[in-house]
């Protein structure tokens, strides 16, 4: 490590991976319930599994982003982290709040949880993805503010780069847009309108800034390409992200009672959203081609390439499939939406966490040139297992979504929801199989950490 304070990133990375294992495990349990509806019922009903599955995803990504930030900012700023102690305190506060929240979901009925956590004082619970109790939401605000403060003070005291500027902009957006989770209007249409200000503008706007900054940092380190060249690409990608992502929020407003002009704004703007991800592919593969060094950590660049490709497929291609209003009228809320959600979150955000861990963790463990060849080979096997699993899972959900649309929304002989679900149960078996492949790939990935170094 160039700076001793970078060591605070290590516990964040480790806990993010632990949470990822839990997130996948709960996803597999949900997959089993799709084909065996009574599995674990009433011990853990489907709605609780889904809530835990989604919330673990959000929290693990935040831990991954924080670890990446605390690793890269000192190097970019050429200055020690402003307060390593604050970063460690933040870590433990977030761990305790996260664990207690998940335990609450699992062991306390949700209606009772709302009473125990003062939801009557400021009602914020009961909304998809933002189910967190009020104390947890307040804790997230405190954690994020301390995170932004630590990052900003480090940047202010040190060198300013395009990477840290883009990253800090994304972190500020993360903090600001989460505040809409506290605003719950009585009017249901207004509620959904402002709810998307957190849910969409996180994942399709400010989180993409964080993604771009982390990706640029890793590519810079493993290719040795001139910083000015990388900065130009980063500016272009981020500009396209902001232009398309902000107004692209409108593709959620199509049929919920918002004015009709959102049909046009949402369709046109969100149709442009695949472009920044396509630019990301061009960026990573161009930098790889023009690399000036042959870094020993080859698997980190592989993860970077995979991030660009899979995020383009998930967020770009599968997002575009149903982003136009006339198409969305038939596809919204089907398994096609789930297909897009799974591949886009995995490709854009889970894979960028893998990318930065693949680059930084060996250094944090005293291996400045990366893991040994045997460990990288093991990690490459895990890379392909998880990617094949996620693409297969996405294709299965896509087939299920198309069958669901044909059963329930197109034609003259429509059937009920449960009859439709029964007709596509075989596809859910396929989805479950690919989900198990992803989990097995993660276990292989974990095993790569225990491969012994080559003797010299």
Features:
75% helix, mainly alpha
What topology emerges from the helices and strands here?
Elements: H1 9-35, H2 46-77, H3 84-107, H4 110-116, H5 134-157, H6 162-178, H7 188-223, H8 227-247, H9 261-271, H10 274-289, H11 298-321, H12 325-331, H13 335-364, H14 373-408, H15 417-423, H16 425-448
Helix pairs in contact: 1-2, 1-16, 2-3, 2-5, 2-13, 3-5, 5-6, 6-7, 7-8, 7-10, 7-11, 7-13, 8-9, 8-10, 10-11, 11-13, 11-14, 13-14, 14-15, 14-16
Secondary structural class: mainly alpha
Radius of gyration: 22 Å
Cα-to-Cα separation, first versus last residue: 22 Å
The oligomeric status of these chains comes to single chain
Q: Strand portion, in percent?
A: under 5%
Number of strands: 0
Shape: globular
- Can you summarize the main beta sheet? none
SSE pattern, N- to C-terminal: HHHHHHHHHHHHHHHH
> Unreliable segments (pLDDT under 50, ≥5 consecutive)?
none
Mean pLDDT: 95
Question: In which range does the helix fraction lie?
Answer: over 70%
Count the DSSP helices: 16
Describe this entry's structure for a reader.
The chain has 456 residues and is mostly helical. It contains 16 helices and no strands. α7 packs antiparallel against α11 and α10 runs antiparallel to α11. The protein is globular and about 65 Å long. It starts with 8 loop residues before the first helix and ends in an 8-residue tail after the last helix. The mean pLDDT is 95.
């Amino acid at each position: 490590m160039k700076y001793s304070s970078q060591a605070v990133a290590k516990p964040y990375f480790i806990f993010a991976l632990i949470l990822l294992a839990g997130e996948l495990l709960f996803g597999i349990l949900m997959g089993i319930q799709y084909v065996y509806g009574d599995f674990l019922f009433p011990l853990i009903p489907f709605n609780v599994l889904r809530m835990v599955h989604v919330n673990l995803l959000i929290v693990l990504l935040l831990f991954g982003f924080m670890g990446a930030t605390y690793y890269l900012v000192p190097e970019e700023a050429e200055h020690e982290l402003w307060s390593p102690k604050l970063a460690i305190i933040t870590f433990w506060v977030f761990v305790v709040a996260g664990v207690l929240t998940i335990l609450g979901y699992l062991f306390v009925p949700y209606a009772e949880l709302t009473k125990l956590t003062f939801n009557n004082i400021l009602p914020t619970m009961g909304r998809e993805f933002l189910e967190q109790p009020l104390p947890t939401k307040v804790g997230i605000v405190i954690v994020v503010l301390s995170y932004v403060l630590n990052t900003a003070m480090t940047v202010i005291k040190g060198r300013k780069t395009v990477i840290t500027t883009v990253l800090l902009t994304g972190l500020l957006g993360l903090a600001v847009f989460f505040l809409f989770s506290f605003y719950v209007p009585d009017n249901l249409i207004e509620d959904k309108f402002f709810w998307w200000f957190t849910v969409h503008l996180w994942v399709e706007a400010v989180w993409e800034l964080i993604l771009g900054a982390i990706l640029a940092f890793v590519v810079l380190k493993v290719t040795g390409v001139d910083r000015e060249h990388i900065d130009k690409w980063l500016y272009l990608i981020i500009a396209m992200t902001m232009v398309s992502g902000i107004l692209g929020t409108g593709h959620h407003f199509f049929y919920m009672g918002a004015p009709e002009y959102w049909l046009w704004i949402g369709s046109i703007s969100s149709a442009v959203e695949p472009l920044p991800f396509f630019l990301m592919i061009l960026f990573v593969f161009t930098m790889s081609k023009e690399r000036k060094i042959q870094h020993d950590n080859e698997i980190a660049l592989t993860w970077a390439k995979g991030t660009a490709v899979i995020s383009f497929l998930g967020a770009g291609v599968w997002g575009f499939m149903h982003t136009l209003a006339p198409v969305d009228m038939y596809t919204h809320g089907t398994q096609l939406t789930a297909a897009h959600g799974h591949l886009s979150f995995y490709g854009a955000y889970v894979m960028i966490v893998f990318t930065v861990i693949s680059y930084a963790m060996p250094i944090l463990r005293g291996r400045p040139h990366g893991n040994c060849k045997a460990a990288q080979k093991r990690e490459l096997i895990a890379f392909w297992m998880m990617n094949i699993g996620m693409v297969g899972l996405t294709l299965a959900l896509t087939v299920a979504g198309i069958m669901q649309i044909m059963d329930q929304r197109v034609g003259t002989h429509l059937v009920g929801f449960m009859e439709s679900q029964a007709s596509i149960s075989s596809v859910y078996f396929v989805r479950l199989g690919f989900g198990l492949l992803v989990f097995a790939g993660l276990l292989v990935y974990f095993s790569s950490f225990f491969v012994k170094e080559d003797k010299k």
